[in-house]
Write a structure and sequence with these properties.
Structural class of chain A: alpha+beta
Structural class of chain B: mainly alpha
Shape of chain A: elongated
Order of helices and strands of chain A: HHHHHHEHEEEHH
Helix content of chain A: 40-55%
Radius of gyration of chain A: 21 Å
Strand order of the largest sheet of chain A: 2-1-3-4
Largest interface: A-B, 37 and 27 residues
Helix content of chain B: over 70%
Oligomer: heterodimer
Strand content of chain A: 5-15%
Number of helices of chain B: 2
Radius of gyration of chain B: 75 Å
Chain lengths: ~170, ~260
């Protein structure tokens, strides 16, 4: 069965988030299958409960994983747990990727915002591979389909170079 | 009853057989001792006979070996003596031959030395004669050449004086011509030189202006780069994450609109 269902991609926009959520999933299921004596309740509720006392970021990922629903979570059993996790990570590699160089680390909300824009304007199932590069301030740089483009402040500055030079000239007199 | 009798009979027979066997064993031992006592002297006799025979054979062998040793020693001594005599005779013959050869060589060497001395003396005389004859010839030739050289020197002196005179005249003519030409040129050329200098000054001024403009443009460009870099530093520090996200989104829109994506 398909692991990267639309439900998974619906609330996950970067490759690093997908890998992080795969780890969260694995840790929960190890507890669920191998430590719990009785398995009562919905798995999505149990995930939220399991990570209830974690830090805000982890809890946010756990909530996102719980939102994937039974269609994804019920695919995991004690016998196939590690195999399915491996398949999940392997499937992430096969997604179309936009490597985005950004000047600072973005919170989840900003990643979601940029990711949604990319899914709408570029490709519906594209996944972001975010890298921090302070040189891309005032915009970003990206690699897509094996081509690198710089649309940072340097790009805009070069584009408006004449205006800038004229501006500098205007201070000469 | 019958069984009781049979058992007793068997026991009696068995005891009888055992006693019989013991008697036979005792008889056997006694017989063996007797036989040993009877055969011992014969054995001793045979052993002493064998020992005597062996001693005799060993002694005979020793005698034979000693005889052969003495014979071999005398033969070896005789052979060594012969060899020594032979070697001495050969050494004497070799010494004699060596002396003969040495005498012959000394004789031949003294003869050759004498011949060489004679040939050398003759050669020295001949060379001295030749040198003397050639010296006379050389002296005669040198005298002739000296006379010719003196005549040539006199002629050369005369010619050199003529050349000096001709050169002085030519030099005077050229100097006068140059002086006249220079006077003509200096009057007409001064104007042309002034014009040329003015043109060069104008070209230099134009070039300086062009260079100044180029440098100015370069400085402006650097100013633009400086402004860009400064702005980047300021932007990097001054903006909040959501403002950065705005700029990223704007950049992506720009990329989309210009066909990069």
């Amino acid at each position: 069965m398909e692991l990267l269902t639309p439900d998974v991609l619906k609330n996950t926009f970067s490759a690093s988030d997908l890998y992080r959520r795969a780890d969260i999933l694995q840790r929960f299921f190890e507890h669920f299958f191998f430590e719990l004596s009785s398995h009562t309740g919905e798995r999505c509720d149990l995930i939220r409960a399991y990570y209830r006392d974690s830090d805000g970021e982890t809890l946010g990922h756990a909530v996102a994983v719980a939102a994937w629903g039974a269609g994804v979570l019920d695919q995991f059993t004690a016998e196939n747990l590690y195999e399915r996790i491996r398949e999940f990570k392997h499937a992430v590699q096969s997604l179309p990727k936009l490597t985005l160089y950004v000047p600072v680390h973005f919170p989840a909300a900003q990643i979601e915002r940029i990711g949604r824009w990319c899914r709408t304007e570029i490709q519906p199932d594209v996944i972001l591979d975010l890298r921090i590069d302070s040189g891309t301030v005032g915009g970003c740089a990206f690699a897509y389909h094996n081509a690198f483009h710089d649309v940072s402040f340097t790009y805009f500055s070069n584009k408006e170079r004449k205006t800038l030079v004229d501006l500098v000239h205007s201070y000469d007199g | 009853m019958l069984t009781s009798l049979s058992t007793e009979t068997f026991a009696a027979i068995s005891i009888g057989l055992v006693i019989g066997l013991i008697v036979l064993l005792v008889l056997q031992i006694i017989t063996g001792l007797r036989v040993q006592r009877l055969t011992y002297p014969i054995y001793e006799f045979a052993r002493s006979q064998s020992q005597a025979e062996a001693d005799r054979i060993v002694n005979a062998a020793r005698e034979e070996a000693r005889r052969m040793l003495v014979e071999a020693q005398s033969t070896v001594e005789s052979l060594v003596g012969k060899q020594r005599e032979d070697i001495e005779a050969r050494a004497q013959a070799y010494q004699k031959a060596l002396e003969d050869l040495s005498n012959a060589a000394q004789h031949a060497m003294s003869e050759n030395t004498e011949k060489a001395r004679t040939i050398q003396a003759e050669a020295v005389q001949k060379i001295a004669h030749d040198i003397e004859a050639q010296g006379q010839d050389l002296r005669a030739r040198t005298e002739v050449m000296g006379q010719q050289l003196e005549a040539f020197l006199k002629q050369s002196q005369t010619q050199t004086a003529d050349i000096h005179r001709a050169l002085d005249e030519k030099s005077r003519e050229i100097t006068d011509g140059l002086k006249r030409t220079f006077d003509d040129v200096s009057a007409t050329g001064k104007k042309a030189i002034d014009e040329r200098i003015n043109a060069l000054l104008q070209a230099a001024e134009t070039e300086v202006n062009t260079y100044r403009d180029a440098r100015k443009r370069m400085v402006d460009e650097h100013m633009a780069d400086l402004v860009t870099e400064t702005s980047k530093v300021v932007l990097g520090k001054a903006l909040a994450p959501d403002e950065h996200a705005d700029l990223v989104e704007r950049a992506l829109k720009e990329a989309r609109s210009t066909g990069m994506i």
